[in-house]
């Protein structure tokens, strides 16, 4: 069972990202400050939940959290500053949008850069340990999935409605057939030699 808080003395925000390993699309991040008196049942690492369950939990998180925010960093920025820095930047942007300023950040993973003077703790597999990080993972994942579904309507040949930009065999074969587009990350290896066509 996931812990609700790391500590209870000061407001803390769980932070997580989605789309770090994708070949296409932005990286998204979310920050969530849970309400101490409102319970959200079923919070877990977004990867362990069905799409339907994630969407139901997203609504509940947005309704019950003290504060939440989602941010993204573009493919072009990922290519410019690398995916690690882009993921951290997306988290910073999400924290910056919170209406309640946290005094502690719980970061999923083992790498982070300080956000202003806010204390932070990096927690490997934090989305499977703390509810606020799990909530952030759900928001980041669902908002990114929505974004990729919209891109799919413009570029159906890549099947982003199914792979969401990850390097599945089908996605790589589509890149080999059709080339890359402006939403592919040029700094990532596509696993094939194919020039950009559009």
CATH superfamily: Ribonuclease H-like superfamily/Ribonuclease H
Spans with pLDDT under 50 lasting ≥5 residues? 193-198
**From the 3D coordinates, which CATH architecture would you assign?**
2-Layer Sandwich
- Major β-sheet profile: 5 strands, mixed
Helix content: 25-40%
Descriptive notes:
The chain has 198 residues and is of the alpha/beta class. It has one domain: Ribonuclease H-like superfamily/Ribonuclease H (Nucleotidyltransferase, domain 5), CATH 3.30.420.10. The protein is 37% helix and 16% strand. The protein has 6 helices and 5 strands. Strands 3-2-1-4-5 form a 5-stranded mixed sheet, with helices on both faces. Strand 1 and strand 2 form a beta hairpin. Helix 1 packs across helix 4 and helix 2 crosses helix 3. The radius of gyration is 17 Å and the shape is globular. The C terminus is likely disordered.
Which helices and strands, and how do they pair?
Layout: E1 12-18, E2 27-33, H1 51-64, E3 67-73, H2 75-81, H3 83-97, E4 104-108, E5 119-123, H4 131-154, H5 160-163, H6 169-178
Parallel strand pairs: 1-4, 4-5
Antiparallel strand pairs: 1-2, 2-3
List keywords for this structure.
disordered C terminus, alpha/beta, 37% helix, single chain, 6 helices, Nucleotidyltransferase, domain 5
What's the short story on this structure?
With 198 residues, the chain is of the alpha/beta class.
